[in-house]
Automatic annotation (TrEMBL):
Protein name: Oxidoreductase
Superkingdom of source: Eukaryota
Species whose genome carries this gene: Rehmannia glutinosa (Chinese foxglove)
InterPro entries xrefs: Gfo/Idh/MocA-like_OxRdtase_N, GFO_IDH_MocA-like_dom, NAD(P)-bd_dom_sf
UniProt record similarity statement: Belongs to the Gfo/Idh/MocA family.
């Protein structure tokens, strides 16, 4: 029996990240670069040429033209967050499955409009949080779920920062209130919050408190912030995200028996392999001069980069709907919505002068 035809992807816009995802679509075994649309034909054609689109790929001078192409199965949308609600809803109404760049919306109210459009039109939606799809992530989850090794979750600590230049601070869409008003919270903070929820098996915290000292630009867009979270059963979490500090991608997950740590949780140090550290029932040596047992390092190899695994999984779900009559997978929009709820709570806490904010689903 011949394998199903690959999923035809259209891309809306020529953002920098779209180059990375274009490559992922090419590397994924069950997808193909079918179309690119920009606000001008010339820009779309230049992007297609520079990113190795096949000669057969359609080039369009508008986003609407991509959505109107009956051969496009799915669209990747890397547009500024303020444009997501318009183009994601239009894509869903055109029956195009949706791989949506994060943050998925400016707030959960906008996201709910997008999710309703996807549900009512039977299309799959997934956010482009790439590290969730790395084979390492599944191996780490096995450790967290092993009660004899990890035990009960007690705390999570996440940090994602990178230092930007003057041009970024003045011109990047992520510092413009009319384009990406969530700033660093929506960009790097999204990853921190997702990592915490992942460790907590997507149980929402009871409350969120933004920590004093958030840095905002003159337009009120967040450049750096920190927050803490509290759960009903006493679990806690903290995160820090920033455009103003050296590149750091740390995650620590602490349980009653074990600890998981790694230092490249968003983008692995190397594309074809990634490592993590675990320690189980650690203590000190007799004279308190070292650890016993020492942490163990685990390395997971992969034949595809994590973004290609993401595209492949998304394409598998789309193919199941297209060829087998399956229903859209609800796990991914649920993860998106819970992440957005916590992003909203942190933003609200900052806006209210660092008040505690209850997280309500």
């Amino acid at each position: 029996m011949a394998p199903p035809s690959p999923i035809n992807f259209g891309i809306l816009g020529c953002a920098f990240i779209a180059g990375k995802v274009s490559r992922a679509i090419t590397l994924s075994p069950n997808s193909t670069l079918y179309a690119i649309g920009s606000r001008s034909y010339e820009k779309a054609a230049k992007f297609a040429k520079e990113n190795g689109f096949p000669d057969s790929a359609k080039v369009y001078g508008s986003y609407d033209a991509v959505l109107d192409d009956p051969e496009v199965d799915a669209v990747y949308v890397p547009l500024p967050t303020s444009l997501h609600i318009k183009w994601a809803v239009l894509a869903a109404r055109k029956k195009k499955h949706l791989l949506l760049e994060k943050p998925v919306a400016l707030n959960v109210g906008e996201l709910d409009v997008i999710l309703e459009a996807c549900e009512s039109n039977g299309v799959q939606i997934m956010d482009a949080t790439m590290w969730m799809h790395h084979p390492r992530t599944a191996k780490m989850k096995e450790f967290l779920l092993d009660s004899s090794l990890f035990g009960e979750l007690k705390s999570v600590h996440s940090c994602f920062t990178f230092a930007v230049d003057k041009n970024f601070l003045e011109n990047d869409i992520r510092v413009k209130p009319d384009l990406d008003a969530l700033g660093a919270l929506g960009d790097v903070g999204w990853y921190c919050i997702r990592s915490i929820l992942w460790a907590a098996d997507f149980e929402l915290p009871k409350s969120v408190l933004a920590l004093r000292g958030a840095v905002l630009n003159s337009a009120g867009v967040i450049l750096a912030c920190s927050a803490s979270m509290q759960w009903e059963d006493g679990k806690t979490a903290t995160f820090h995200c920033s455009f103003l500090a050296n590149l750091t991608m740390d995650l620590s997950v602490v349980g009653t028996n074990g600890t998981l740590r790694f230092h490249d949780f968003v983008i692995p140090f190397e594309e074809n392999k990634a490592s993590f550290l675990t320690s189980v029932k650690s203590g000190f040596t007799e004279l308190v001069t070292g650890w016993e047992p020492k942490p163990s390092e685990h390395t997971v190899s992969t034949d595809l980069p994590q973004e290609a695994h993401m595209v492949s999984e998304f394409s598998r779900l789309v193919g199941s709907i297209k060829f087998d009559g399956a229903k859209p997978e609800t796990k991914w929009p649920t993860f998106s919505r819970k992440t957005q709820l916590v992003v909203d709570a942190v933003k609200t806490s900052i806006d209210r002068g660092y008040e505690v904010v209850e997280v309500k689903s």
